[in-house]
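Case study: PemK-like protein.
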Amino acid sequence: MATMPTRADVWLVDLGMVAKVRPCLILSVPADDDNDRVLTTIVPHTTSTRDSRFEVRSSVRFHKPGAFDAQKVVTIPTVKLIRRIGTLPQDQMTDVEDAVKLWLGFETAS
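Here is what the predicted structure looks like once written out:
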């Protein structure tokens, strides 16, 4: 991997045979220490939306219209990242952060 993932980047990620390769939003901060594990927390993008309150709609030019699904937040080895395809605008990143906080019970719906 030539570049390190940065928060708000969208990367193509190999999520395995069932979940396949799909765009994922980088949620975690980059590791900056040799003692940090080489892991990245992501939010997968889906085109099969259910209009859940945990889905954040996204329509940026570098992937198909759909949503980032906060219910599928997961931490993976960074080697699963294939290539960077873009960066999510700050307003959409904030919406994803809010959905993840809601899903994890850090905030209540307003």
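For the exam, be able to explain this: The mean pLDDT is 90.
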